[in-house]
Design brief:
There is one protein chain. The longest helix is centred in the C-terminal third of the chain and has 25 residues, at 177-201. The protein has ten helices and no strands. 60% of the residues lie in helices and 0% in strands. The protein has one domain: Hypothetical protein af1432, CATH 1.10.3210. It starts with a helix and ends with a helix. With 205 residues, the chain is mainly alpha-helical. The radius of gyration is 17 Å and the shape is globular.
Length: 205
């Protein structure tokens, strides 16, 4: 499965490439061991979590995730568990609750969100902003805490707003103790980065 995904996502340029999948996979495995979760389910869901992501996938066609799982002989019960986890992983807006029902889902969500914050998260955020043709910053446009998934999907704001609309909210939405511990340091790094960003923006440093 990993080789298939590495081939498919190798040249992806929005910050959702193979190496993002690889990091989420490794983080999820680390958390799963500590939480005594079902490692097989966690590995499949973390590897496949972006295959049908709403930002890129054609949602009018059949699920690529299911097709991939079927192609390697995964049973129907496992497919159902994995696809349920994947459906609940993504952030859908500040005002939208997305808490997975199983410990395996919570672990995959934590791992994915950890890769969205900290030093790598900052790099990915600007990669995605460039991919979507967005400004780095526009001080005249305030962030919006979206109350619905539809509003969140329609957002085309500048990249700095994304910190306030999503990234800085993730520390307090971690599910596992390991996720919370890792998120604290990454969150602090983002706050330090933003302080320096505004200082340079205002010609103070």
């Amino acid at each position: 499965m990993a080789r298939i995904l590495e081939s498919e996502f190798r040249n992806e340029s929005s910050g959702h490439d193979w190496w993002h999948i690889y990091r989420v996979w490794n983080l999820a495995k680390r958390i799963a061991v500590k939480e005594n979760a079902e490692l097989y389910i966690v590995e499949l869901a973390s590897l496949l979590h972006d295959v049908d992501d709403w930002k890129f996938a054609d949602h009018n066609g059949p699920s690529k995730t299911i097709k991939l799982l079927e192609s390697v002989g995964v049973d129907n019960e496992t497919i159902e568990l994995v696809t349920e986890i994947i459906s609940s992983v993504s952030f859908k807006g500040a005002g939208v609750e997305t808490i997975p029902q199983t410990i395996e889902g919570k672990i995959v969500q934590d791992a994915d969100r950890l890769d969205a914050i900290g030093a790598i998260g900052i790099a990915r955020t600007f990669a995605y902003g460039g991919f979507k043709g967005r400004n780095i910053y526009n001080p005249d446009v305030e962030p919006i805490l979206h109350s619905s998934f539809d509003d969140y999907k329609k957002s085309a704001s500048h990249t700095i707003n994304h910190f306030y609309e999503k990234l800085l909210l993730l520390r307090d939405r971690m599910n596992t103790q390991t996720g919370k511990e890792l998120a604290a340091k990454r969150h602090l790094f983002m706050e330090t980065y933003l302080e320096q960003f505004y200082s340079e923006w205002n010609a103070n440093s």
